[in-house]
Amino acid sequence: MIKMKKVQLYFNCIFIVVVGDVFLVFFTGFAIKYKDLQEKKTEIIILNNLDTALTNLQGSSFTTSTNIELPVNINVNCDSNGYNILINEKNHINHLLASKNNLKKNLLVWYQPYEIPFKITNFYYMVDDSNINIATNNADLINSIKEEMPEEFKLKINVYPGNNLVVNGDKNMGTVLVEGKSIPYLKKEMLYAAVFSSNYSCFYDDTKKRIGDVVSIYENKARILNRGGCNYNLILSKLNLLRDFDHVNYQVIQDIETLNRNLISMNCPGLF
Q1: CB of 36 within 8 A of CB of 87?
Q2: Which residues contact 154 (CB under 8 A, 6 or more apart)?
Q3: Cα four-point dihedral sign 195, 201, 204, 206
Q4: Which of 57, 155, 66 is nearest to 108 (CA)?
Q5: What secondary structure does DSSP assign to 128-165, as a single string?
Q6: Alpha carbon distances (Å) from 171 to 124, 143, 144, 188
Q7: For the chain, which residues make up each domain, given as ranges?
Q8: ∠ CA 184-190-193 to the nearest 5 degrees?
Q9: Coil, helix or strand at residue 172
C-alpha cells in the first residue's frame, strides 16, 4: 500500500510538472504574441498619425508645419525603391522625406511644395528634439534660408564655419558635397533638404525621377495644344532641358514661366 501511494505520488508530481510546463509555454507564447500585437498596434498608430499629418499639411492653405509625439524611435531610410520608415519592420512611404535617419520623442514636420515652375511634388522636412549643428563653408547662405523657416525649425539650427556641409551656389541653384560627390540642388526647397537630410543623394535621385514623370505629362499636353495659332515648340524645348536635371540652369525655370505667360496673353491655353 505504501509503495502504491509512493508510485501515485510520483505520477502526480510528474503530472503537475507536465501541466505546469504546458501552462508556462501557453502563457509565455501568449505574452509574446500580446507583445507583438501591441508593437504592431503602436506601429500602425504612428504610421496613421504621420500619414494624416502629411496629408493635412498638403491640404492646408495656411499651416505648413505640425508636430507628432513619438512613443518609440523611428528610422527613416531611403534606397533605390524610395523611402521607408522602420519601426518594427519596414513600411514603404510614398513621400519625399528630408530628415536624419533616427527620430525620437517630439517629431516636427514642415511641408513645402516643389515647383519648377509647375508643381512636381511635395517635400516634407522632419526633425526631432535634437539640435541641428551645421558646420558649413557658406554660413551666410544657410543663415539666410534659415530665416525663412518656421520658428520651431529655425530655433533648432546652429550654423557655424566648417566643412561638414559644403555648399557652392546661391539659394536658386548650386551643388552640395555629399560623400565626396557634388550633387546639384535647384531652388531653395532642395537646399533645405540638403540641410535636414542624412541621405540627400537618395532624396535627389527620387526627386529627379518625379521630375521626369511630370515633365512627360506636360510635354504630352504641349504637343496636344500645339495646333492652330498656338505654338508650343519653344516651351517644349525648354521642358526637354529639365530632363537633364543634373545640369539644368535656374534660368530654364524662369524661361518656362515667361513662355507660359506669353501663351496665355496670346489667348492660348496655359500649359500649367
Answers
A1: no
A2: 146, 147
A3: negative
A4: 66
A5: -SS-EEEEES-HHHHHHHHTTS-HHHHTTEEEEESSSB
A6: 18, 11, 9, 5
A7: 41-197, 208-265
A8: 110
A9: coil
pLDDT tens-place string over residues 134-183: 999 999 999 999 999 999 999 999 999 999 999 999 999 999 998 889 99
The three grid cell numbers given for residue 214, joined into one nine-digit string: 511630370
Q: What is the model's pLDDT at position 227?
A: 79
C-alpha cell of residue 95 = 513621400
Tell me which residue has cell 534660408: 145
The C-alpha cell at 189 is: 526647397
Contact 79, 202 (CB under 8 A): yes
Cβ-based neighbours of 261, under 8 Å, separated by 6 or more = none
Residue with cell 529655425: 154
Give the pairing type, strands 82-86 and 74-79: antiparallel
pTM: 0.80
| Phi and psi, residue 229, nearest 5° | -90, 5
Contact 82, 207 (CB under 8 A): no
pLDDT per residue over 192-229, tens digit each? 999 999 999 999 999 999 999 999 999 999 999 997 78
* Strand partners of residue 82: 79
Rounded CA-CA distance 176/201 in Å is: 10
Q: Rounded to an integer, what is the distance from CA 263 to the centroid of its chain?
A: 35
